[in-house]
Write a structure and sequence with these properties.
Its cofactor is Mg(2+). The protein has 471 residues and is of the alpha/beta class. The chain is 34% helix and 24% strand. The strands form 4 sheets. The chain has an 11-stranded mixed sheet with strand order 8-7-6-9-5-10-11-12-13-14-15, sandwiched between helices. A 6-stranded mixed sheet has the order 16-17-21-18-19-20, sandwiched between helices. Bound molecules: ligand UAG, adenosine-5'-triphosphate, 2,6-diaminopimelic acid and magnesium ion.
Length: 471
């Protein structure tokens, strides 16, 4: 592609690629120079040009010498738009999901539902890039914009026609998932998380709302979980742009959850849609999984799926890795579940999902991540203390912080809890004290394969450790 095609000028130089890190610039690259949270990308413009950048997308006031300056007051957005034109085409149907909890579950369930409808589908998010046959990790929930657009275009080349991706608040704020047409946007819920980055709940909500106010196509759809205190505002923001709204939940209009009855291995749902009531046996436990299944069905319906067929497919959903995953049954007879709950709201949802299944005690093992929102720590402690019978506070990715200090902050909310720093020992202790009627919940890491301590990632997998400790 000639550079002029992107700038609207007549530059004949050939664009070879896009980069936002000057260390990835090669001859013919378009470099995006953005102010970040650690450094200012504009400081690397000269180095990028030296490395072969032929154009630099940056603010008008940035200094660019020796390459075309594509000036824009919002360089991240401009860069995403140009990169998308370079990497296109993308899968014909792309949908995005935002919300504090449930994004990964929804993109994965949406992918499964599309596949059951016969489409070649993929999902992109915390679990990586997942197609029917393959899963490749990207490291972040929302990869950087170049990785995201090139991966998504790569999926189209492999024949993927439908893709569902997570739009995290960081990703939305940094324009990491822009440029391609988004046919439908999903909202799951909003609760406390990431205040270290966004500062206030209002700023956090606003970052997420860009998905509805700017990113989703104006002729697209918004699929909104209707039972959240902020759902009405989300619908209003979507409608203000003429975006069609599909609401789902007990308050939903498109898919109305009429009843939910937990069974041994799942739950029976009665869902009203198009004036009829559909009875579905969802093979997953917990109110939160029913909510995510309904948002996912909404996304499939919003992009052309048949209502009856889509709802019928819910009965064939496979569990999502690390989300209420039953790792093992302890010798005591207690099942041990692993769940990715790492916010107060998620911990509450995970405990609430398991509580109806525990005849005896609910034993929970969890911690809180370092270099992340500190305010959620005591809140998580308080929820565990209020809702579980036995609470063991342990480590969860201390990163650059002192692990004991993080545990102390969690324990402020759960004064009676037991403290065991080593996650392996904590899981072992929970299993050792379990009885036949009890349930053990190991929360916070879900699918993760490592414990991040300082700059080291030590191999760690809650599911395998639980199996080892139960043996
Ligand atoms: C706080 C945050 O979101 N940081 C991300 C962000 O960095 P930034 O733009 O602030 O970058 P910066 O380091 O200040 O650098 C500014 C610019 O200079 C460039 N640079 C920098 C150094 C250099 O030598 N040369 C150079 O060109 C950088 O590429 C960047 O464009 O953009 C980078 C590139 O895309 C990301 O790698 C980085 O993620 C860091 C590693 C991270 O930990 N992010 C987490 C918090 C995150 O994003 N999590 C969310 C939410 C999870 C969820 O709830 O699901 C996620 O989507 O994963
Ligand atoms: N709809 C929901 N309502 C409340 N809690 C939920 C919901 N969905 C998931 N959770 C909780 O949040 C955890 C993480 O779920 P999931 O990975 O789907 O969310 P996410 O939004 O992708 O998280 P992340 O921000 O880390 O990417 C689950 O393990 C569960 O404990
Ligand atoms: N996307 C989330 C994941 C948190 C997972 C938890 N195990 C932790 O490390 O805090 C984050 O990066 O904040
Ligand atoms: Mg996720």
């Amino acid at each position: 592609m000639k550079l002029g095609l992107l700038t609207g000028g007549d530059e004949q130089a050939t664009v070879s690629g896009f980069a936002i890190d000057h260390r990835k610039v090669a001859s013919g690259t378009v470099f995006g120079a953005f102010a970040g949270s650690k450094v200012n990308g504009e400081d690397y413009i000269a180095a990028a040009v030296k490395a072969g950048a032929i154009a630099v997308v940056a603010r008008p006031e940035a200094r660019v010498e020796g390459a075309v300056h594509i000036a824009d007051a919002n360089p991240r957005r401009a860069f995403a738009g140009l990169a998308a034109r370079f990497f296109a085409p993308f899968p014909a149907v792309a949908v995005a999901v935002t919300g504090t909890n449930g994004k990964t579950s929804c993109v994965e369930m949406t992918r499964q539902l599309w596949r059951m409808a016969g489409f070649h589908a993929a999902s992109i998010g915390t679990l990586g890039v997942t197609t029917g046959d393959d899963r490749v990790s990207t490291g972040l929930t929302t990869p950087d914009v170049v990785t995201f657009l090139s991966n998504t275009a790569g999926l189209a080349r492999e024949g993927v026609s439908h893709v569902a991706f997570e739009a995290s608040s960081h990703g939305l704020e940094q324009y990491r998932t822009e440029g391609l047409p988004v046919r439908a946007a999903g909202f799951t819920n909003l609760s406390r998380d990431h205040l270290d980055y966004h500062g206030t709940m209002a700023a956090y909500f606003e970052a997420k709302m860009r998905l509805f106010s700017e990113v989703v196509s104006a002729d697209g759809a918004a699929v909104v979980w209707a039972d959240d205190p902020l759902s009405a505002q989300v619908m209003e923001i979507a409608r203000a742009r003429g975006v069609r709204v599909l609401s789902v939940g007990t308050q939903g209009e498109t898919l109305k959850l009429v009843s939910r009855d937990p069974t041994l291995l799942g739950q029976g749902l009665a869902i009203m849609a198009e004036g009829r009531t559909f009875e579905i046996n969802l093979p997953l436990i917990g109110a939160y999984q029913a909510a995510n299944a309904m948002v996912s069905a909404g996304l499939v319906i919003a992009t052309g799926g048949d209502v009856a067929a889509t709802l019928a497919s819910l009965a064939r959903l496979q569990p999502v890795r690390g989300r209420l995953e039953r790792a093992v049954i302890a010798r005591s007879g207690a099942p041990v579940y692993v769940d990715y709950a790492h916010t107060p709201d998620a911990l509450e949802a995970a405990i609430a999902a398991l509580a109806p299944h525990a005849k005896g005690r609910l034993i929970v093992v969890f911690g809180a991540g370092g270099d992340r929102d500190q305010g959620k720590r005591a809140a998580m402690g308080a929820i565990a203390a209020a809702l579980a019978d036995v609470v063991i506070v342990t480590d969860d990715n201390p990163r650059g912080e002192d692990a004991a200090t993080i545990r102390a902050m969690v324990l402020e909310g759960a004064p009676g809890a037991t403290e065991i720093g080593s996650r392996r020992e904590a899981i072992g202790a929970a299993i050792a004290l379990s009885g036949p009627e009890d349930i053990v919940l190991v929360a916070g890491k879900g699918h993760e394969q490592g414990q991040i301590v300082g700059d080291l990632v030590l191999p760690f997998d809650d599911v395998s450790v639980a199996r080892e400790m139960a043996a």
